[in-house]
Design brief:
16 strands, 6 helices, alpha/beta, six-stranded mixed β-sheet
Length: about 270
């Protein structure tokens, strides 16, 4: 199957323009799994919680409907970051959309920086979905969002739940993640697909610069595809997701069976 990560440079607050900009990239990706960045349609560094609320949408809103249309047209499963409104609460979420519609939503567990002022942290934990590629071959897809990478338990939880591939919509500003993701893939025996953004964004008081470097990594810590620090890009890699189901390292060691959780501090 083919994974594609789309690295974008959205304009904060310009949802319709951002969707128009992304559309030809999604439709031309020619992939079974397409991963878009965190908050890809709204921008990230909100001026206020009121601005975040004004840009947030319900799960049945226009952005998800657009994603559903793209998935139906291309046959791809799409994972994309969304500012979600649920009643009075706002969440930094990612949606999983298949050609037959929305499969589910993940609400970001570990909020970063001023996200803590605008969003509620997700309380439902991590989830793995069984999805299919365009040839109807099934695989298991987990999702985490941006700063979740910093906590090894995020990827480990998804791996223990059976994920073959971890989609990772991101708006990374810390420089460490691109180097860390091959290790997350290796230690958990999974493929990872990090879709980051580029550019600089201001909230009126300070600015954040995003580090780009979207990448797709293998269970052997290989970087299968990578984008630059500054440019928008579409990266692609061909994988066999079922390679992630081999947990043995050699005849004597297994990355799952050798764990000793009774000795690990919580």
């Amino acid at each position: 199957m083919t994974i594609s990560c789309i690295q974008t440079h959205p304009t904060k607050g310009q949802t319709e323009a951002n969707l128009r900009s992304v559309e030809p990239l999604v439709l031309g990706a020619d992939a079974d799994l397409v991963v878009l960045p965190e908050l890809f349609a709204t921008g990230y560094f909100f001026d206020s919680s009121e601005q975040a609320a004004s840009l947030a949408e319900t799960i049945d809103g226009p952005t998800v409907r657009q994603l559903e249309g793209w998935a139906q047209e291309t046959g791809a499963t799409i994972v994309a970051g969304l500012a979600e409104r649920d009643g009075d609460a706002l969440y930094n979420s990612a949606v999983v959309v298949a050609p037959n519609g929305l499969l589910g939503t993940y609400r970001k567990t570990h909020l970063y920086y001023e996200e803590t002022q605008h969003f509620a942290p997700g309380a439902d934990g991590f989830e793995v979905w069984t999805v299919t590629d365009r040839k109807r071959r099934s695989y298991r897809l987990g999702v985490m969002v941006c700063f979740d990478w910093f906590f090894p338990e995020s990827a480990r939880t998804l791996a223990l739940q059976g994920a073959d591939v971890i989609a990772h919509p991101s708006n990374l500003v810390l420089p460490h993640c691109p180097a860390a993701m091959p290790i997350r893939a290796l230690e958990n025996g999974v493929f990872t697909a990090t879709a980051n953004r580029v550019g600089t964004e201001s909230n009126g008081r300070e600015s954040l610069t995003f580090v780009g470097q979207s990448r797709i990594c293998s269970p052997r810590a290989e970087v299968l595809a990578a984008a630059s620090v500054v440019d928008e890009a579409v990266i692609r890699a061909e994988i066999d997701p079922h390679e992630a189901r081999t947990t043995a390292l050699n005849p004597y060691n297994d990355r799952v069976a050798d764990r000793r959780p009774e000795l690990y501090a919580s």
